[in-house]
Amino acid sequence: MSARSSAVGVLALQGDVREHLAALAEAGAVARPVRRPEELEQVDALVIPGGESTTISKLAETFDLLDPIRKRVGAGMPVYGSCAGMIMLATEVLDGRPDQQSFGGIEMTVRRNAFGRQVDSFEAPVEITGIPGPSFHAVFIRAPWVERVADGVEVLGRVTDGPAAGRIVAVRQGNAVATAFHPELTGDRRLHQWFVDLVGRAGESAR
Question: One Pfam family from the UniProt entry (predicted)?
């Protein structure tokens, strides 16, 4: 399967689903909302959007998607999470609800709402390893950051300026990628294109 014909789902339970669908389509993927297990089975990869991680966690259980997504991610399905999606891909979440569950996929510790509340949202330049061109104009909204990563997790990007300088905001482990910021909210499609290309390569190697 080529990158341009890859079917990439967006978990459509809560959050900025429409923006990710549009960005993926512009990057050449067949973009589909995923709300049910049978829809998950029809995609080659999954994007977990920003939103509210505790709500996404609860709705994933309600819609019987928690275990199916865990199994697909554990089996190597390409997955990308932005903001709340980063939290959902973490193996450990700090400052979350005691009953909050995640999909896992990236061996990292993430601090929920680390950058502050909604009023503390900000924008900053972030360079992403492996994606050429200028820095990303990164939008952070009640964003997490990564406090610790295990061996085998590649740090792709950090905040470069301000009081949070040095904080990890983009990571990758195998086919799982996460950012603390929202590339879908800008017109820059390089990260979505990079992920769609990753999906295509994964499909080729699985043949």
Answer: SNO
Give the model's confidence band at 206: pLDDT under 50 very low, under 70 low, under 90 confident, else very high.
Answer: low
Least confident of 97-101, 104-108, 189-193, 194-198: 97-101
How are beta strands 168-173 and 45-48 bridged, if at all?
unpaired
For residue 12, the domain's CATH number is 3.40.50.880
Write out the residue range of the structural domain in which residue 50 sits. Answer: 3-206
Question: Total domain count for the chain?
Answer: 1
The response to whether 51 counts as a known ligand-binding position is yes
CB 111 within 8 A of CB 145: yes
Residue 15 labelled as part of a binding site:
no
Give catalytic residue positions.
83, 182, 184
Q: Has 52 been labeled as part of a binding site? A: yes
Quick one: average pLDDT of 42-69? 96
Quote the pTM value: 0.93
